[in-house]
Description:
Order of helices and strands: EHEEEHEEH
Number of strands: 6
Structural class: alpha+beta
Strand content: 25-35%
Helix content: 25-40%
Shape: globular
Radius of gyration: 14 Å
Amino acid sequence: MAAISNVQVTISLAELGLDDEELQTEVENLLPQLKEVDGVEDADLVAVENAPKGTKSISGFVWGLLKAQVNASNIKSLFKFLSDRFGNKPIKLVVEAPDGRKINLEADSLEKFEIAFQKAQDFLNNKSNS
């Protein structure tokens, strides 16, 4: 039986239009909930050394960014959680496959979350993507 691989998902809440303090509060509220989602093996703030260029940071972590290690066979639970929580708000996601390939996704409606989930599934199931 093949081992189930984990994928890394980076979640950016920076597009929510919140000031830095509100953004940090949102991230701190979301983190423990994210850890409880089925299939999420681990979740944490994004450390400054792993930050994309141009992002703001505080105390060694990036404002508005979270990362989660998700069981690839259960990524739908993460997308369901995010669409329930942010269904009408803009967020950005980066899904990184176990082989290092990445896909950038954005959603700001329930329909776009469904499309983003389908793109993530197709990406993870098709190893020839770049």
